[in-house]
Amino acid sequence: KIFYTPSISPDDRSKPAPWGLRATLGFSALIILANLASGIMAAVGFVAFTQNPYLEKDPSQLAFNGTLVTLSILISSPVILGLTLVFANLRRGLALKDYLGLHETDWKQVVKWLLVLFLFAGASDLITLLLKRPVVEQFMFNIYSTATSKPLLWTALVIAAPVSEEIFFRGFLFYGILNTGLGPTGAVVLSSLIWAPLHIQYDLYGLGTVLVLGLLFGYARLKTNSVYIPIAMHALMNFIAAMEVMIHITRTSPGS
Prior knowledge:
Layout: H1 21-50, H2 53-57, H3 66-89, H4 96-99, H5 107-130, H6 138-146, H7 150-178, H8 183-195, H9 204-224, H10 228-252
Helix pairs in contact: 1-3, 1-7, 3-7, 5-9, 5-10, 7-8, 7-10, 8-9, 9-10
């Protein structure tokens, strides 16, 4: 078998099962809608508070305003995490750590998968350069340069987003799909297909990269039976991306 997970081994079949596929997808849709609503509320409040005439004339700039992006992530992450915990807890008889994959793992596994992620990031950048595409998209420069608090932006990107997204997508959604007829392959693929399109700031090439990254996160979750691994990988990927932006801005700034 290509995929194997102890979560569906014969010895575990007698254990309580998570929500079925319809319920899992239904609850997941509610979580995603709540995430979008949180972002809209953050944008409305941001525009009302800042009263920036440039943003009022060109609302499209909101999507790439670093301060708003930071606020949106910091506001929506607790919403995603909270609803995930609520819906998982509503399924009686199944411990949260099993449902969400909150299983301890050793440092060797962490180092191994972080190395895999680092190699993926390097290969992705190399392919991007060979295709004569920019490694760092313009919207990333806009977000970083317009963030009024760089520490808060780093916190949102490297901590808040990876923790909330992975516990939801590679925790709740993944495990719900895993225990249906779709099995391990379906859990890895479908959770990635739902996760990738939410990154609407990217073009088709960028979305393709995000999709492959999601498949890698899902495979790591499957092989290790721990959501902590994709959280660490997600955090490292965002850290690398932010570092690339910062380094490029530093090199191209006057007097550098």
